[in-house]
Design goal:
Strands 1-2-3-4-6-5 form a six-stranded antiparallel beta sheet, with helices on one face. Strands 12, 13, 14, 15, 16 and 17 form a six-stranded mixed beta sheet that branches. By secondary structure, it is α+β, with helices and mostly antiparallel strands. Helices cover 52% and strands 12% of the residues.
Length: 757
C-alpha cells in the first residue's frame, strides 16, 4: 500500500469506546472550524485527556494539516498554568490528532452568556489571560486568534488559553505573509484585517477587544454585518466604555484604550507592561474593597476658594492658599475624588447656587469657607455642604493664633474624610497631616509663589520664582518650595521666555534638592519628568518619573496632563488622549487641561474633534491664547488655511507678538502660499532676537512651510544643539509632515534618541 493510501481509506467512526492508540474515546465534547474534540481515557497513564482531531473534510488539505500540526507544536512549547498543555501528536487512520490537558469548565463565551461579571472578577481573568500571553510571546509565539471561545475557565475559576491553530512563530514566514486575513472577525487587529504581518501587538489588540467585551457585554466594534465590523476595526473609534458601564475605574478604561490603539506602535509594546498595569488596578480595587467584598462608590467633592474677610484685600493669596493646601492634602486620599484647584476656583466671585456648582463640577459635596486675618489672630469658618439638598454636613469656626493655621488645615481635612465616611488606606492619614515647614513666613511666601505660578504668564512666573526662593531662604528644608522654583523655570523655558539650558539647569538643581529632602514628593517627580522630557530627552526616564508621581498621587490633574503630553510626543497618541481625559475628569473647568485634550486629539489627527474641543475651551475663557494656537494647528491639519491663519493672528494679538506666535503665523502663512507674510514673520523674529532669547525652531518651521529644506534643517540642527524645549514635538507633530522623508531629518531624530518605525 502506498503511503498516502492510508489517508483515503474509510475512517472509523469515533464513537464511545473507539481505541485510538493507547487512548479510548469517552464522548465528543466540542467542534469548531479547525477541529473536533473528544474526551478520552489515556490507558497508559490512567488519566483523562482531550483529543483534538482535524475535521474529516480538511484531512486532504495540506495547508490545514500543516496548520493543525503547528498548533500542537506551538502549544507543546508552552508550559504555563494559563495555557492548556499539549501532551502528544499522532495520527489515526490518516487523521491527525493531538492529546492535550482536559479542562473541566466552560469557555469564556459561555460564562459571559446572560451575565455581567463584577469588575474585580474581570480584572482577575484579564490578568490570567495576559500572563499566558506573555509566556507565549516570550517563546516567540503569537496566538492570532484571542477571543472568548478560545479561553476556558476551569472548575477552579482559572483562565486557560487554548487553540493555537493560527499561531505564528518568530522566525517563521508561516501565516505572516501579506494577503492573509486569518482570524475571527470582530477580534482581529487592524493589521490582521489588512493582511499585514502580525506580532504580539496583534494579540494585545484582540485581548483589548475581549477585555472590553467582558466589561460592556459586547465587543467594541460589533456592527450589523461583517463588512461593517471590519470597517469599524480599521477606521472607527470603539464604543465609549464609560457610557456602557459607568462604574469602571478610569485606570481600566485607559488600559483598554491603549490596547485598542489602531496603530500598533501606540499600543502596549509588550504584554509585561500591560500585565503590570492590570495588577496595579487589581491592587487598588482590593484596597477599596470593604469587608463584604463590594467596591464602594467613590465620594467626590470640591473645595471652593475661601472668602477673604480681612481688611487687607491683598490677603487673597493667603485665603486661596489655605483652600489649595486642603485640596493638596485631600488629593492623597485615593478613595476620594477631589476636583482640582483650577476648576473649583473658577467660581470665585460668582454668585451661583450650590446645586449649580455641584452639577458643573460633577461632585456630591462642597467645602466653602472664609478667612479673617488681623495681626496674629486668625478666624477660619468652614462648612461642608451636601450638593443634592444644600444641607450642611458639618461646619466649624476656628479662632486661633496665626501659628495654628497648619492645625486648622489638618482638622478640616480629617473631618471631611470622617464625614464622607472615606476609608483611609495605609499611610494616608500621615500624608493628610504632613507638614513641610513650621516657619510661618516661609509658608506665607510659598502661598504667594503658588498664587503667581497659577497665573502662568511670564511676569507671574518670575514673581513666583522670587517668592519660592525667599521661602527656601527662610527654610532650606522646605521641599515643595523647591518644586515651585523648578516648575516656574520649566514653564519659562518651555514657552521660550528664557534660554533653555540655564533655566533647566536651575530647575533640575531645585527639583533634585526637593527629592533629596523628600523622595516621596509626587510633585517633585512630576517636575523631574517634565525636565527629562523637554530638556534631557531621556524618554524612558521621563515616563518613569511621571508614573512614579501618579503612583504617589494618582489624583493630580497637572501630572496627568504632563504625562499625556509625553505620550503624545512619543506617538502614543491614543494613550495620551485617555490620560488627558483623566485630567479633565479631575479638573473639568480648567482651560489648560481642556486645551491639552484638544492638542491630544490634534496629535491623533482627529482634527475636527480637536476643533470642537478647543472651541469648548474658548467657551470657558474666550481670551485664552494657547487655545487659539492649537486651533491654528488643527485647522492647518485640515488644510483650512484662512481659519488657521485667523486663529494664529488671534494668538499673536493675545501674546503681544511673542516669538512663538510669529513663528507659527509665518509657518501656516507659508503653507497657505503667502510667502510674503512668512518672510515678514522671519524679519519680526530676527528683530525680537536682538533683545532676548528666541528659539531657532520657529525659523525652522517657517522655512519648512516655504519648502526650503536646507534652511529648515540648518535651524533644526541649531535648535538641537541648544536643547530647545519644544523640539521633541517634531517626532509626532503633524505640522512637520512635509519634511519627514528627508534623510537629514531622520538622522536628527536618531541623534535625539527618537527613531522612525
Amino acid at each position: 500500500m502506498a503511503p498516502d493510501d492510508d489517508k483515503t481509506r474509510a475512517v472509523t467512526v469515533l464513537s464511545k469506546g473507539t481505541a485510538v492508540g493507547h487512548y479510548r474515546i469517552i464522548e465528543k465534547i466540542g467542534a469548531g472550524g479547525m477541529g473536533e474534540v473528544y474526551l478520552a481515557q489515556d490507558t497508559k497513564l490512567d488519566r483523562t485527556v482531550a483529543l483534538k482531531f482535524l475535521p474529516l473534510h480538511l484531512c486532504h488539505d495540506t495547508e490545514c494539516r500543516e496548520r493543525f500540526t503547528r498548533e500542537a507544536q506551538s502549544a507543546a512549547r508552552l508550559d504555563h498554568p494559563n495555557i492548556v498543555s499539549v501532551f502528544e501528536v499522532g495520527e489515526f487512520q490518516g487523521r491527525p490528532f493531538f492529546s492535550m490537558q482536559h479542562v473541566e469548565g466552560q469557555s469564556l463565551k459561555e460564562v459571559l452568556a446572560g451575565q455581567t461579571l463584577p469588575i474585580e472578577r474581570i480584572v482577575e481573568i484579564a490578568i490570567q489571560i495576559c500572563d499566558g500571553l506573555q509566556a507565549a510571546h516570550e517563546k516567540g509565539i503569537t496566538h492570532r486568534d484571542i477571543k472568548p471561545s478560545n479561553i476556558l475557565i476551569d472548575s477552579h475559576g482559572r483562565a486557560r488559553i487554548v487553540d493555537f491553530g493560527l499561531a505564528s512563530v518568530m522566525g517563521s514566514d508561516q501565516l505572516t505573509k501579506t494577503g492573509s486575513t486569518l482570524g475571527t472577525i470582530g477580534y482581529m487587529s487592524p493589521e490582521q484585517v489588512r493582511g499585514e504581518k502580525v506580532d504580539g501587538a496583534s494579540d494585545i489588540f484582540s485581548f483589548g477587544v475581549v477585555l472590553f467585551e467582558l466589561m460592556a457585554g459586547k465587543p467594541p466594534f460589533h456592527r450589523a454585518n461583517e463588512a461593517a465590523t471590519l470597517h469599524a476595526i480599521l477606521t472607527e473609534e470603539p464604543l465609549r466604555l464609560i457610557e456602557l458601564r459607568p462604574n469602571i475605574p478610569r485606570e481600566l478604561v485607559a488600559i483598554v484604550t491603549q490596547s485598542l490603539a489602531k496603530d500598533r506602535n501606540h499600543r502596549y509594546q509588550d504584554a509585561a507592561m500591560l500585565l503590570s498595569d492590570l495588577r496595579d488596578v487589581r491592587n487598588r480595587l482590593r484596597d477599596m474593597t470593604a469587608s463584604e467584598g463590594k467596591v464602594h462608590s467613590q465620594p467626590s467633592m470640591a473645595v471652593l476658594p475661601f472668602a477673604n474677610l480681612s481688611a487687607d484685600k491683598e490677603q487673597d493669596y493667603f485665603c486661596d492658599g489655605i483652600a489649595e493646601e486642603i485640596i493638596n492634602a485631600l488629593n492623597h486620599v485615593e478613595n476620594l475624588r477631589v476636583v482640582a484647584r483650577t476648576s473649583s476656583f473658577s467660581f470665585k466671585g460668582k454668585d451661583l447656587d450650590i446645586r449649580e456648582i455641584g452639577r458643573r463640577l460633577n461632585v456630591d459635596t462642597l467645602l466653602e469657607g472664609s478667612v479673617r486675618k488681623s495681626g496674629d489672630r486668625l478666624r477660619v469658618i468652614a462648612q461642608l455642604i451636601n450638593v443634592s439638598d444644600g444641607y450642611h454636613l458639618w461646619s466649624e469656626r476656628f479662632d486661633r493664633q496665626m501659628e495654628d493655621v497648619f492645625a486648622i488645615q489638618d482638622e478640616i481635612s480629617l473631618t471631611i474624610v470622617d464625614r464622607l465616611k472615606v476609608q483611609l488606606l495605609a499611610g494616608e492619614r500621615a500624608l493628610l497631616t504632613k507638614r513641610y515647614t513650621e516657619d510661618q513666613e516661609a509658608y506665607n511666601l510659598y502661598l504667594q509663589g503658588r498664587h503667581f505660578w497659577n497665573r502662568r504668564h511670564e511676569g507671574g512666573l518670575q514673581k513666583g520664582i522670587e517668592a519660592f526662593e525667599r521661602a527656601v531662604l527662610r527654610d532650606p528644608m522646605y521641599a515643595p518650595a523647591y518644586v515651585g522654583v523648578a516648575d516656574c523655570h520649566n514653564q519659562l523655558a518651555h514657552w521660550g521666555y528664557t534660554e533653555p539650558k540655564e533655566a533647566y539647569r536651575k530647575a533640575k538643581e531645585a527639583v533634585e534638592k526637593a527629592l533629596s529632602i523628600d523622595s516621596s514628593l509626587a510633585e517633585a517627580h512630576a517636575s523631574l519628568g517634565w525636565i527629562k522630557l523637554w530638556h534631557d530627552w531621556d524618554w524612558a526616564g521621563s515616563e518613569r518619573e511621571f508614573r512614579e508621581a501618579l503612583k504617589l498621587n494618582p489624583n493630580d490633574a497637572v501630572t496627568h496632563e504632563w504625562y499625556a503630553l509625553y505620550l503624545a510626543v512619543m506617538q502614543r497618541v491614543d494613550e495620551g488622549v485617555a490620560e488627558v481625559r483623566r485630567a479633565v475628569d479631575l479638573d473639568p473647568l480648567s482651560i489648560v487641561v481642556n486645551s491639552i485634550l484638544g492638542v491630544g486629539l490634534y496629535w491623533a489627527r482627529r482634527f475636527d474633534d480637536a476643533i470642537v474641543q478647543l472651541n469648548k475651551t474658548l467657551e470657558l475663557e474666550p481670551s485664552f491664547p494657547q487655545a487659539y494656537l492649537y486651533l491654528c494647528w488643527s485647522y492647518a491639519g485640515k488644510g483650512a488655511w484662512p481659519e488657521s491663519i485667523a486663529a494664529c493672528e488671534k494668538f499673536v494679538a493675545l501674546t503681544n507678538g511673542s516669538a512663538v506666535s510669529l513663528g507659527y503665523l509665518g509657518a501656516v502663512s507659508a503653507l497657505a502660499g503667502n510667502a510674503d507674510r512668512a518672510h515678514e514673520s522671519l524679519e519680526q523674529i530676527d528683530f525680537l532676537a536682538r533683545g532676548r532669547y528666541v528659539s531657532q525652531l520657529y525659523r525652522a518651521l517657517i522655512y519648512m512651510g516655504l519648502g526650503n529644506r536646507d534652511e529648515a534643517m540648518r535651524f533644526l540642527e541649531l535648535a538641537r544643539q541648544q536643547k530647545e524645549s519644544f523640539l521633541p514635538v517634531i517626532y509626532s507633530f503633524p505640522l512637520i509632515d512635509s519634511i519627514r522623508d528627508d534623510v537629514r531629518f531622520v538622522d536628527l531624530l536618531g541623534r535625539m534618541g527618537l527613531y522612525v518605525s
